[in-house]
Amino acid sequence: MSAKELNTYVYESLTSDPYKNIAVERYLTSNVKDNEIILYLWQNADTVVIGKNQNIYKEVDTELMKKNGVHICRRFSGGGAVYHDMGNLNFSFIATVPVYSVKRQTDVVVSALRKLGIDAVAGGRNDIYQNGQKLSGNAYYTVCGASCHHGTLMLDVDLKKLSVYLAKSPKFASRAVESVVSPVANISDLCGTVISADRMKTLLSEAFSSEYGKARKYSVPREANVEINALADYIASESWIYSRRIRFSCVSERKFSYGNVEFCINVSGNVVTGARVYTDSLCTDDYIWVESALLGRKFTEEELEKAIRSSVKDAGKADDLVAMAHDDFFSRQT
């Protein structure tokens, strides 16, 4: 398809709501026409976004994020967990199969970065690096015969927060996809000056127009807002964020004066589907009811503590089991 036949659009989001932004991206991907390609540019306020098939509890500290008001999102593409703040710019290339080309799309981003004097190159996973440091993580998904290639551009991200919220927990055995940890760098640090989101948007738009033809501004039809808002509500729901059917096991072991205790929990989504307490304690009925009390509970520290305290008659042993759950299932300290 020649450039003259192709309608090239740039759409800039006006919100920093991650659920709305991801919903808009999904809407655009579901509705893009065969003769169109869209560059969608968007930013999220403090948010951790995990891949579609990741175990949220292994990837991020959910309790700390809730405490600090950090959004938790699950996207439609695969790949690993990423941290977004207003120092990060997200881009999405959206097109149907005849137009969609990861190489050309990646070249647009590389070209824009080189305008800043950055010697950017595409890596093996089509992430973008300079001297081994990752500047942009990319992921992909397909829906309704169209594809979305999206990624991050770390302009001036708070790297301390990134390292805290993306701290992986070593305490879960999971079949879910784990994030691949790479050294990261801010583009502003490499340039020696702050690169604003507006400047990066301009550079990307120019590189996009150079590759595909002069881009026009895209407008989402007003009648699409009902669909987008409903999709945003779904993306923000517990059923989407937490209840993906990803199974994992949590195991805590301790030695106490009354014997060894091994506390095991199976979880599917965010619901406890099985629990066992193994012990060589001489008192055999300490934990006889805890397994059934935990079954069906949400996998939160509060819910587990309620179940334990209601089913373990010995208060001291209940305290021990609660501490085991806190330290080995929920605390990020290793």
Tally the beta strands: 16
CATH architecture of the largest domain: 2-Layer Sandwich
Using the coordinates shown, work out and report the CATH topology of the largest domain.
Answer: BirA Bifunctional Protein, domain 2
What does the overall shape look like?
elongated
Query: What would you call the structural class?
Result: alpha+beta
Order of helices and strands: EHEEHHEEEHEEEEEHEHHEHHEEEHHH
How many helical stretches? 12
Mean pLDDT: 89
- How many independent structural domains? 2
Helix content: 25-40%
- Could you name the CATH homologous superfamily of the largest domain? Bira Bifunctional Protein, Domain 2
Question: Low-confidence runs (pLDDT<50, min 5 residues)?
Answer: none
Largest sheet: 6 strands, mixed
Measured distance between first and last alpha carbons: 55 Å
| CA gyration radius, whole angstroms | 23 Å
Identify the strand order in the major beta sheet. 10-11-6-2-1-13
